[in-house]
Write a structure and sequence with these properties.
single chain, alpha/beta, Arginase, Chain A, 8-stranded parallel sheet, 8 strands, globular
């Protein structure tokens, strides 16, 4: 696909508030208290910890890695933003409480007035979706970004499921394709325990998007049609443990990035691979999850490719602590943290040389891509 074809639509994009200017003093970590779903205890009827995002932020504050003043506050995606991917028909269907109850797998929602469902359930999900779109632009600008929420990989343009009402991964990529010069190829590395059938359906015939998906082959959603979009498919057995898992993560993430050189990596970092997760069926330790994220970020850093991470699934109370520990480890390893405060003369990474090398590689990578497209 030519550069001209890739960039079609950039000039005709709708006005959005999500691509705002972010101060250089902010880390590219995106969050808003509205991410957390609390409504008369109904959120407890689903195994998902609907307050885990706030807990992650709390742990990162306790460790003095972030403050309220140096993280990016997410904005809610508007209907115009959502229509970049979603059909009007699908968004109208979300105005029926029974539809939202089915998508979120919380049956009592069907008895509630839709205005309450919109405010207490869908607004948090729209805010997380806005956060993923914002983090996509930040990743390009800063080399990396983390949305502490998002990762709704079971939702496609015209249908939701598995607690996923909005296709935030598809939206983030399409926003970048439409609005950011030089971004015309993306690689999705989906390491949630479940198959990411939503973004797979959306990008089924789109050669600009390379999808690697590594998941438990025996669990939801088992979407054979969507699997046709996966360029690197890694199907795991029940109870897969650290050693085998981490070998496959390294082998296939390296292989995916060697096969196609993307302009952005979208990393769906679900923690439902954790041993004991009621829905994941795998047996990965907390240390294994931390190491997994390090492997993916290190592969991106080595090649100078910007990376966007979202947190996706995870159905145990302890997953918030693990996500926080993983982010702290990425910082300790010098894989994140330095560039955001560079403009203020502050370096907070463990190895300044590595960080400078990383951003040199990003610049070289962009020049090479521009040369290829020319």
């Amino acid at each position: 696909m030519s550069s001209k074809e890739d960039n079609e639509g950039k000039s005709s994009s709708h006005h959005t508030g999500l691509y705002i200017s972010i101060p250089r003093t902010c880390l590219p970590i995106v969050y808003h208290p509205d991410y957390n779903i609390t409504f008369m205890g109904l959120e407890k009827l689903h195994p998902f910890d609907a307050g885990k995002w706030g807990k992650v932020i709390g742990f990162l504050k306790e460790e003095q890695f972030i403050t309220d003043g140096n993280i990016v506050e997410a904005l809610e995606a508007t209907e115009e933003d959502l229509l970049v991917v979603h059909t009007k028909r699908y968004l109208n269907r979300l105005k029926w409480s029974v539809v939202v109850a089915t998508i979120t797998e919380i049956p009592p929602l069907l008895f509630l007035p839709n205005f309450l469902v919109q405010r207490k359930v869908l607004k948090p999900l729209r805010t997380q979706t806005g956060g993923t779109i914002m983090a996509g632009k930040l990743a390009v600008d800063r080399g990396w970004a983390i949305n502490v929420g998002g990762g709704f990989h079971h939702c496609s343009s015209d249908r939701g499921g598995g607690f996923c009402a909005y296709a935030d991964l598809t939206l983030a990529i399409k926003f970048l394709f439409e609005r950011v010069e030089g971004i015309s190829r993306a690689t999705i590395i989906d390491l949630d325990a479940h198959q990411g059938n939503g973004h797979e359906r959306d990008f089924l015939d789109d050669r600009r998007v390379f999808i690697m998906d590594m998941y438990n082959r025996y669990i939801y959603p088992g979407d054979g049609y969507a699997k046709r979009a996966i360029k690197r498919k890694v199907e795991l057995d029940w109870g897969t443990e650290d050693s085998e898992y981490l070998q496959k993560v390294e082998l296939h993430s390296e292989g995916a990035l060697n096969e196609v050189r993307p302009d952005i990596i979208v990393y769906n970092a679900g923690t439902d691979i954790l041993d004991g997760d009621p829905l994941g069926g795998l047996s990965i330790s907390p240390h294994g999850i931390v190491k997994r994220d390090e492997i993916v970020f290190r592969a991106a850093m080595r090649r100078g490719i910007p990376i966007l991470m979202v947190t996706s699934g995870g159905y145990q109370k302890k997953t918030a602590r693990i996500i926080a520990d993983s982010i702290l480890n990425l910082h300790q390893q010098g894989l994140i943290g330095a560039e955001a405060l560079e403009g203020e003369g502050i370096i907070i990474a463990s190895d300044q040389h590595d960080v400078q090398l990383y951003f040199c590689r990003i610049k070289i990578h962009r020049c090479l891509r521009h040369s290829d497209d020319s």
